[in-house]
Design brief:
The complex is a heterodimer. Chain A has two domains: about 35 residues, no CATH class; about 220 residues, Alpha-Beta Plaits (2-Layer Sandwich). By secondary structure, chain A is of the alpha+beta class. Helix content of chain A is about 30%, strand content about 15%. Chain B is built from 14 helices and no strands. The longest helix of chain B has about 35 residues. Classes of the chains: A alpha+beta, B mainly alpha. Chains A and B meet through helix 7, helix 8 and strand 6 of A and helix 5 and helix 6 of B.
């Protein structure tokens, strides 16, 4: 075809499209390596296995509430006031219920009912992605377990598969959530609201990471106290999370199930 | 042959109209659910599957149970069953139609259902369930229809149907195996995470399916001039007896593993079902009812005299149907979600609209079944005349 074969055509078309989006990838294809140096300043766009370390002894109600509020405002997560239909991306739960396999009847009250933050664990071996019949949820190359709300058919197989209760279903239309509890909904016009009948969950703030920003919860925590929530790349041996994991004893939820959660708790 | 379904007596039309009314009520409730979302059901973030998926699971068993007529007939050359294979196949069609409808009404986004085909995902068991269920539906339509129309013309069924018949036998096993795999491969749901799940499903299917078929045969004999046959019903009774014994045995195996190992996660769901957990006892009377009916059915099925007497066999079949329905159409799904991943117990009970939608789907299945059986009866009466 006039000297341009199919492969070349696709490459040119792809490059044009990427350049149109202003992506680094487009520049990479045209001049590999040239922009690497300037991107180093934004390592958040280059993770291979994103992970979070939650420093339990440093957590308090104020920090947790701020983190949850930041997350739910960022992602237009409404309040329903009914635990049965609640949508939760980031939430508080006590140690006893978060780690049901660590039961110990002589544990002190202050540990047993110590609250901590829970979210999607972005497992390295995620059962939710395994069972999804439409690939509406999948594991990205940077480790994020992602959701496509426009493809999800609402079968809720992923909710049955997730051993952490990290997935929420839109039992009704989120825009019809009680107005008195959600006066400003939608709270972030730059983020989509979901339709009824789809599953959603924490995405490690993929939309912020792609801009080189920390997840909303981490940023909110940092404003009050440093190193309570630590977010970074597990694949990099010198990363902040790897250093913290070397220095502290950490646990993960239900490790025996082989899901390889990527949220770690300093106890 | 479809024209045969258009000629019937007053009772036939009355029954169809009755079913249509129930289907209409169900449809009305479904439209309400379609607009409002699944929040109109009793399901929650903790018990995220409920009555719909439980009915689906039970009915896959009924569909698979039909093979207990085809298998002896075609693999063991048990000629007597040739008279009723089509009843088994048409029961399977009606059951699979209900299965597909129950999946459909359970979806949060039913308009996107074609995504399952547009983005085929072999690692998802639901993808395979879609394939085996639709395949089983088409196999039974092709086989049942061709065998019956050949019979009407006094011919042997066409040669190309024979391989399909042989294929349909392992295929029946596959539908309930794949359905069990929906549950048995999920980490963290201890009640479902059992290697014996598929075997349990098949044994309860081979008890419940033929039990329903016996009852249908007795009804057919009452309302028409076609007699499915004494020997046929008696042989089916033997099949139900064996399958129910194996089914109960498999359930007891689950109890042994859970309570001898004393692993809390394995015991919790069973305690929830039979004793109640954290004060939640909603399913306890149901499960003990299932136990009593299972025991009653076993007594009636094991004692030769009661098994061979059609009255007591019918009672046994009703008992099998109720017992297996409570076990699979109610307990299995709810207990799988109880306790939840945080070791908490949340109650689930279907709401009125949810029940009406479910009853509407059952009515649709019986509508299909009635029409198909009407055709069979008319053909058989025609041949006899």
């Amino acid at each position: 075809m006039m000297g341009v074969d199919r492969r070349q055509f696709l490459k040119i078309a792809g490059v044009t499209a990427l350049a149109g989006l202003g992506g680094k990838a487009a520049v990479d294809i045209l001049a590999p390596g040239d922009v690497e140096a300037s991107m180093k300043a934004l390592p958040l766009t280059e993770g291979k296995r994103w992970a979070m370390v939650i420093n339990m002894p440093e957590l308090n109600d104020e920090i947790m509430n701020k983190c949850i509020a930041a997350c739910h405002e960022e992602h237009n997560v409404p309040e329903f006031g009914d635990p049965k239909v609640e949508v939760k991306w980031l939430w508080k739960e006590d140690y006893h219920h978060s780690f049901p396999d660590h039961h110990n009847e002589y544990i002190d009250e202050k540990y047993e009912h110590k609250f901590l933050l829970l979210a999607c664990n972005h497992c390295s071996n995620p059962p939710c992605c395994r069972v999804c019949p439409t690939q509406a949820t999948w594991k990205r190359e940077d480790g994020i377990v992602m959701m496509d709300w426009h493809r999800c058919i609402g079968c809720r197989f992923c909710m049955a598969a997730c051993p952490y209760g990290s997935r929420s279903f839109n039992w009704g239309d989120p825009r019809k959530a009680p107005k008195d509890k959600n006066p400003d909904f939608p709270t972030n016009i730059n983020y989509p609201t979901r339709s009824k009948g789809v599953v959603e969950k924490c995405t490690f703030c993929d939309e912020r990471i792609s801009k080189g920003q920390l997840p909303a919860c981490v940023e909110a925590a940092n404003k009050l106290k440093k190193n309570v929530l630590i977010f970074g790349d597990l694949a990099d041996p010198d990363s902040n999370v790897r250093q913290v994991l070397r220095k502290n004893y950490t646990i993960r939820r239900k490790p025996a199930l082989g899901t390889e959660p990527n949220i770690f708790y300093i106890v | 042959m479809l024209d045969l379904a258009l000629k019937g007596k007053r009772g036939y039309w009355g029954w169809l109209i009755f079913l249509l009314v129930i289907m209409g009520i169900g449809l009305g409730c479904y439209i309400y659910q379609f607009q409002e979302g699944l929040k109109i059901t009793g399901m929650s973030r903790d018990v995220s599957w409920g009555f719909y998926i439980a009915q689906f699971t039970y009915l896959v068993g009924i569909a698979a149970g039909g093979v207990m007529v085809a298998l002896p007939c075609y693999l063991h050359d048990y000629k007597a069953f040739g008279r009723i294979t089509v009843l088994g196949e048409f029961l399977a069609i009606a059951a699979v139609v209900m299965c597909l409808l129950f999946i459909f009404v359970d979806l949060g986004n039913p308009v996107r259902i074609m995504n399952v085909i547009m983005y085929p995902t072999p690692n998802s068991i639901l993808f395979w369930d879609m394939i085996v269920l639709n395949g089983y539906l088409f196999l039974n339509i092709l086989i049942g229809w061709n065998v019956l129309s050949a019979e009407r013309k006094g011919l042997h069924h066409p040669g190309w149907v024979t391989p399909l018949i042989y294929l349909s036998i392992p295929w029946a096993f596959s539908i309930h195996t794949v359905t069990a795999f929906l549950y048995a491969g999920l980490p963290g749901r201890h009640f479902w995470l059992t290697a014996i799940m598929a075997a349990r499903f098949l044994s309860s299917a081979f008890a419940a399916g033929p039990a329903l078929l016996i009852l249908l045969c007795l009804i057919v004999r009452k309302v028409s001039k076609f007699d499915p046959g004494k020997e046929q019903i008696r042989t089916l009774g033997g099949i139900v007896a064996y399958a129910m014994i194996i089914n109960v045995f498999f359930v007891l195996l689950e109890f042994f593993t859970a309570f001898y190992s004393q692993i809390p996660g394995h015991m919790h769901s069973l305690i929830f079902l039979f004793k109640g957990l954290d004060g939640h006892t909603q399913l306890v009377p149901w499960m003990w009812t299932a136990t009593v009916f299972a025991a009653l059915s076993l007594i009636l099925l094991i004692i030769p005299a009661t098994r061979r007497k059609e009255d007591t066999l019918a009672v046994a079949c009703v008992a099998v149907f109720i017992s297996t329905w409570i076990d699979k159409g109610l307990g299995l799904v709810i207990a799988g979600f109880t306790p939840n991943p945080f070791n908490r117990v949340f109650d689930y009970w279907p709401t009125m609209p949810e029940l009406f939608i479910a009853i509407g789907v059952w009515a649709t299945g019986f509508f299909v079944l009635t029409i198909l059986y009407k055709i069979v009866i008319s053909v058989k009466e025609e041949i006899a005349a």
